[in-house]
User: Fold this.
Amino acid sequence: MKIGFVGLGNMGAPMARNLLKAGHDLVVHDVVRTNVDAVAAAGARPAATLRDLVAHAEFVLTMLPSSPHVRTVYLGEDGVLAAVRPGVVLVDSSTIDPHTAREVASRAAAQGNPMADAPVSGGTNGAAAGTLTFMVGAAEALYERIRPVLATMGKTIVRCGDSGTGQVAKICNNLVLAISMIGVAEAMSLGDALGIDPKVLASIVNTSSGRCWSSDTYNPFPGVMDNVPAARGYCGGFGADLMLKDLGLATDAAKQSRQPVVLGAAAEQLYRLFSAQGHGGLDFSAIIQLYRKDGAS
Ligand code: NAD
Assistant:
């Protein structure tokens, strides 16, 4: 299939490579030239403009930082919707706010372009391995059309409901994740300060009612687990600034629907403080550094 791919960053580049490996004819675009060159070296054709990209595509996929970038790429004067032929299928896999996802999809549908939101979880490792989870917001028929393409980049493809619900699932999951990570960081730091061996504490939590992914798979306390960011100075993984962005999406969406997110708002403030201290590039589990008296990493 002729696929246009826009946004070749940490996630987009490995996703594009998996589409190439599956034999798709890929045309790619990014505002950063070196990102385009890296994927072109693997066999994709570079497009200098979005107009050039959509002229050669029957399917367009985007993987952009956030809502404003998605608005620019789809709704901008020289954006996708200004140039795309009716019938071309559009899929946005960026994590953005559900309101923007629904607005862009409805403007695309009005000119004859079916559009789905399909944000992902699984991180850069999942993107490279082709094991991402896609959370899809689309009508059933559109979901069936895009599923085979998504399956070349992911292992679990879930239809969450109609337009925007993929983004709803994504931001709600990350809201739970941020709050649970802060909860584990707080408890592990308290236990350490009160004199229990952190490994012993983690093993108790992990077989008791406090067990959760942030504790048993991604524990933030250094020395408790191998192969997690806490074991390598919080490098790699899922950046604290990206978590801050996702918490902002959740609290904004909550405001629009007049729904309280008390712990989510507190989590957003903690991540904002951490980012303001210059740590936004560290993995999000490094939030534990706010709790440790020695600031140890
Ligand atoms: P990134 O910043 O590495 O990549 C985004 C790319 O989009 C960059 O190459 C940038 O140059 C390009 N871009 C920006 N504006 C553009 C424009 N107007 N036209 C063309 N290209 C443009 O981000 P990422 O880590 O790849 O994340 C992408 C999305 O996936 C984000 O919404 C993020 O929240 C989500 N996500 C990331 C992870 C992760 O672990 N990194 C995991 C799950 C979901």
User: Anything to note?
Assistant: The mean pLDDT is 96. The longest helix spans residues 165-193.
